[in-house]
Amino acid sequence: MKKSISLILLFITCLYACRRDNTSPEPQAYGLLVPANFPVPEIMKDNMLSEQGVALGRMLFYDKRLSGSNQISCASCHKQALAFSDGVALSNQGASGKPLPRTAPALINLAWSNNGLFWDGGSTNLESQAFGPITNEDEMHQNLDELVYELNQVPEYVKRFKLVFNDEIKTGYIARALAQFQRTLISGNSRYDHYTRNEAGGTLNDTELSGLKLFNTHCRSCHAGELFTDDSYHNNGLDSDFSNDALEGLYQGRFRITYDPSDLGKFKTPTLRNIALTAPYMHDGRLKDLQAVLAHYSHGVKMSATSDQALIHNGQPGLLLTKDDQNAIIAFLQTLTDNSFVQNRDLSEPSIP
């Protein structure tokens, strides 16, 4: 039997003390628990994980001070019980009350996401990504100078920022702390994982095994490897015309960032881990459940110049899956639910000062 978890200590000894006492005057290296069937994540040398940095990021993630109204936190749209998604197509819970143009993505295994964030890859990394929702007038609508002022009124925050970054509170440190916490949102303990690691509790029934075989045949080109994403961008046939996008190119996908015509309609491949918990689906939440998703890929694919060629089967658009095939794939996808992830108290809301 293989070990289910490998411990990767992300630290530089000259920077971090060896003690794990959170009262230490120096931050201690954070031991990132990486499932044994996962690849090794890239070490972010300019924002090394520390015990205290992760704890600070967790506090900030759940703190409503990050919004201009002090009524919205990151967790308002990224709920742990829903694998850090929000369960709605286009949320109207932001500062303006207007429906957002895209659905909130689930936050899962971001330590491996190194090819852009947001649905179009408009942010380079987690550190830069944080400023988007915090400052957006329809989301958290917070003035960054005001945020720094508010956090400076809390002695516990002043102390923690000084400990983690050896400096006063600055906007860049806020983003770095949030990024540290989000890189610990690792999900790799589903029934599928127990199966692939030959562990107790890793039994798949005949339907689920059939679904796994079909999935490997039809879906792995984009939902690759143990992360169930290739971390890239694809046009999956939701639309065929992108010429009348009046929302600043938001429905033109990756093209909005690259201005490369070959990227029209391409969006980031989401991980399928915990997919049964993160409905509705697609960048705009237009597909309400997994049945709708499989129906789309089977017979609903719309072709355009940039449509992914993997979605053409026997010369026809769509995978042409039978109803039994679709149900089997759905049965397999449900084995990717990681209850320990959505119930992990170390990721839940802490005491906010």
Automatic annotation (TrEMBL):
It is found in: Periplasm. Heme c 2 binds at C219, C222, H223. Keywords: Heme, Iron, Metal-binding, Oxidoreductase, Periplasm, Signal. Heme c 1 binds at C74, C77, H78. Its cofactor is heme. One of its GO terms (molecular function) is metal ion binding. Binds 2 heme groups. Gene3D superfamilies: Cytochrome c-like domain (1.10.760.10). It comes from the Bacteria. InterPro entries: Cyt_c-like_dom, Cyt_c-like_dom_sf, Cytochrome_c_Peroxidase/MauG, Di-haem_cyt_c_peroxidsae, MauG/Cytc_peroxidase. Binds 2 heme groups per subunit. Pfam families: CCP_MauG. GO terms for cellular component: periplasmic space. This is C-type cytochrome. It comes from Chitinophaga solisilvae.
